[in-house]
Specification:
By secondary structure, the protein is α/β, with parallel strands linked by helices. It is 29% helix and 23% strand. The strands form eight sheets. Strands 1, 2, 3, 4, 5, 6, 19, 20 and 23 form a nine-stranded mixed sheet that branches. The chain has a five-stranded parallel sheet with strand order 8-17-9-10-13. It has a three-stranded antiparallel sheet with strand order 14-15-16, with no helix packed on it. α1 links the parallel β1 and β2. α5 (200-209) crosses α10 (314-321), α7 (245-269) crosses α8 (271-285) and α11 (405-425) packs parallel to α13. The longest helix has 25 residues, at 245-269. It is globular and about 75 Å long. It comes from Cryptosporangium minutisporangium. Keywords: FAD, Flavoprotein, Monooxygenase, Oxidoreductase. Pfam families: FMO-like, NAD_binding_8. Its cofactor is FAD.
Length: 508
């Protein structure tokens, strides 16, 4: 693909230079590119994508039934209405939406495929990043210069999912598949399938596999909160018939943002009441006499982990039909014919699916240095949920864990563009957050009890107890801070480089 245009200012390194390197061409990277083009239109940029296609998660994952677990009126971009009648949509529709967004806004031509960022070195003297890139198709190493890096890679590892150690794994005679690496030719029709896990991936897979499998068993160690939601939003579809698309979308989006916030706040304030409501809904969806408390009563509070949504109750439907079942137990060992549990029960299987979660890989695993000193992420603190203390001119996109991911990312992109424009207006070259007190109390980067987060906390940055060092999970608070609040902050240090002096020094 053609590269982005080159900045007229030649960097001291002599390398090709762009104002912003965006890492990743998924939902966050495409969104960042749109905001840059429209809110900081003078900036040049390129998107470096390690894979050979746009779409990120929605192109990578190919397991049956893959879909969003948030409504597309909030998971979609604020600037591009979601027009499909399905509010909870499959990956094919989401991918088409993302690629349509990129094509409509001429973002495609800025993407460089098979470019993996492996390192980034900041020079304060030059106020520049030198970015080390590996071609994933040829192995070739290249470099380019950038004023800013915007990492839009999310926080999980794309090339490897998490699978715990299972005793006797080699004994099992059938395929063992992780959903992140689903084989295109896997034939599960008429087969007995055991899906290990109870998160969003498992509850998506079970009803999809049950359409043709002989039987599907969801084997869980611990239950998850699961709620049926309508796949179509009747209010959204009605509004679209009587209002212009942009207006209908804006109203639906506002409604759903308020609804998400209200549900989360209720669950946080009244966890016992929320638990009873969820249990009641589950019981009505399940067959009479079903052991609800054994399989659908988690030991933690609602929203301590992400609540799983099942469109139109499809998981409960296959449980009622008997084409799927849930078993809550621990695995003792794999056997030649399936899985033997601690209770002594054996689940026979032709195929085992390990829907056991993700591995986190913050910032795509890029090695970052500042003036030759390696950045140790656990020693940094997040600033406004998008920069790191002590690291100049680097922004990242991490969405909400208690709401739609893209709601947060959109606000971060808005603030990022405001920050760039502020720096241009005052002729600043670099911007770095500085923690005011080295003894400032900190806490884990993500206040989320999911296993994939807890396994990786020692690899992640930290957060503080209050703004601007807080990883806010409130859209309303972030609107005030990121969209409407001041660009500057006492914790942000801006500097300018004397380029004439630098050029003279290099000429000696």
């Amino acid at each position: 693909m053609p590269a982005a245009s080159i900045s007229p200012e030649e960097p001291p390194t002599g390398l090709e230079h762009v104002d912003v390197v965006i890492v990743g061409a998924g939902i966050s990277g495409i969104g960042a590119a749109y905001y840059l083009q429209n809110r900081a239109p003078g900036k040049t940029y390129t998107i470096l994508e390690a894979r050979g296609a746009t779409g990120g998660t929605w192109d990578l994952f190919r397991y049956p039934g893959i879909r969003s677990d948030s409504d597309l009126h909030t998971f979609g971009y604020e600037f591009k209405p979601w027009r499909d009648e399905e509010s909870i949509a499959g990956a094919d529709k989401i991918l088409a939406y993302l690629r349509e967004t990129a094509a409509e806004n001429d973002i495609d031509r800025h993407v460089r495929f098979h470019h993996r960022v492996v390192g980034a070195a900041w020079s304060s003297a030059d106020a520049r990043w030198v970015v080390d890139v590996e071609r994933t198709d040829t192995g070739e190493r290249t470099q380019l210069s950038a004023s800013w890096i915007f990492t839009a890679t999310g926080y999980y590892r794309y090339d490897e999912g998490f699978t715990p150690h299972f005793e006797g794994r080699d004994r099992f005679g059938g395929p063992i598949v992780h959903p992140q690496h689903w084989p295109e030719d896997l034939d599960y029709a008429g087969k007995r399938v055991v899906v290990i896990g109870s998160g969003a991936t498992a509850v998506t897979l079970v009803p999809a596999l049950a359409k043709t499998a002989a039987h599907v068993t969801m084997l869980q160690r611990t239950p998850t909160y699961i709620m049926p939601v309508p796949s179509k939003d009747p209010i959204a579809n009605r509004l679209r018939k009587i209002l212009p698309p942009d207006r209908a979308y804006a109203l639906t989006r506002r409604k759903n943002i308020a609804q998400q916030a209200a549900i989360w706040k209720f669950a946080q304030r009244f966890p016992n009441a929320a638990r009873k409501i969820i249990r009641s809904v589950n019981a009505k969806q399940l067959p009479a006499g079903y052991p609800v408390d054994e399989h659908f009563n988690p030991p933690y509070g609602p929203w301590d982990q992400r609540l799983c949504a099942v469109p139109d109750g499809d998981l409960f439907r296959v449980l009622r039909k008997g084409t799927a079942s849930v078993v809550t137990d621990r695995i003792e060992t794999f056997t030649e014919n399936g899985v033997r549990l601690v209770s002594g029960r054996e689940l026979e299987a032709d195929i085992i699916v390990t829907a056991t979660g993700l591995n986190l890989l913050p910032f795509g695993g890029t090695d970052v240095t500042v003036d030759g000193v390696p950045v140790n992420l656990p020693e940094t603190v997040a600033f406004r949920g998008m920069m790191l203390s002590g690291v100049p001119n680097l922004a990242f996109a991490i969405g909400y864990t208690n709401s739609s991911w893209t709601l947060k990312v959109g606000l971060l992109c808005e603030y990022f563009c405001r920050l760039l424009n502020h720096m241009d207006a005052h002729r600043y070259d670099s911007c770095v957050p500085v923690v005011p007190d080295p003894d400032m109390p900190t806490r884990p980067f993500l206040d989320f009890d999911a296993g994939y987060v807890k396994r990786s906390l020692d690899q992640l940055p930290r957060q503080g107890a209050a703004a601007p060092w807080l990883m806010s999970m409130s859209y309303q608070d972030d609107v005030k801070l990121l969209r409407n609040g001041p660009v500057t902050d006492p914790a942000l240090r801006f500097t300018s480089v004397d380029r004439a002096a630098t050029a003279a020094e290099m000429a000696r």
